[in-house]
């Protein structure tokens, strides 16, 4: 059920990009046609339960604003963007729910909205 499928030939191999179930996805195959990696960009509604539970526990009352799911032969990693009040978080997680990296930013839009009230 992929839509808007586009293939590109690159020195690294072959890229295919498409939309599936409302998500944008890209897959890289090497020149021999073997899977190398894939990227899925989503709103996070399809995240595994253990990932959602970790986010809810650590970032209670937050909102997921975007997810990049990277799949390689070594496994799946998630890059999750989270909004919580005046803070934005960029969180890297393994498929088992382990947080490997967290960056915290001030959400300038939230500060502006609060100042206007």
Mind describing the biggest β-sheet? 8 strands, antiparallel
| Overall 3D shape | elongated
Number of H- or I-type helical stretches = 2
N-C termini distance? 45 Å
Instruction: Give the overall average pLDDT.
Output: 92
- Secondary-structure element order, as H and E? EEEEHEEEEH
Q: What ranges have pLDDT less than 50 throughout 5 or more consecutive residues?
A: none
Class computed from helices, strands and strand pairing: alpha+beta
- Could you tell me the radius of gyration in angstroms? 17 Å
% residues in beta strands: over 45%
* Strand order in the largest sheet: 1-2-3-4-5-6-7-8
Q: Could you please describe the fold and organization of this structure?
A:
The chain is α+β, with helices and mostly antiparallel strands and 117 residues long. 16% of the residues lie in helices and 57% in strands. It has two helices and eight strands, in the order ββββαββββα. It has helices at residues 49-58, 108-116, and strands at 3-10, 13-20, 23-29, 35-42, 63-72, 75-84, 87-94, 99-106. It has an eight-stranded antiparallel beta sheet with strand order 1-2-3-4-5-6-7-8. The longest helix is centred in the middle third of the chain and has 10 residues, at 49-58. It is elongated.
């Amino acid at each position: 059920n992929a839509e808007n499928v586009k293939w590109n030939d690159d020195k690294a191999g072959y890229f295919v990009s498409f939309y599936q179930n409302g998500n944008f996805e890209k897959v890289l195959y090497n020149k021999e046609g073997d899977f190398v990696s894939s990227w899925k960009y989503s709103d996070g509604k399809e995240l595994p339960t253990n990932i959602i539970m970790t986010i809810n526990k650590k970032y209670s009352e937050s909102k997921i604003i975007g997810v990049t799911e990277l799949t390689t032969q070594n496994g799946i990693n998630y890059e999750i963007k989270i909004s919580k009040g005046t803070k934005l978080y960029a969180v890297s997680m393994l498929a088992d729910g382990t947080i490997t990296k967290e960056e915290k930013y001030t959400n300038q839009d939230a500060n502006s909205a609060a100042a206007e009230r």
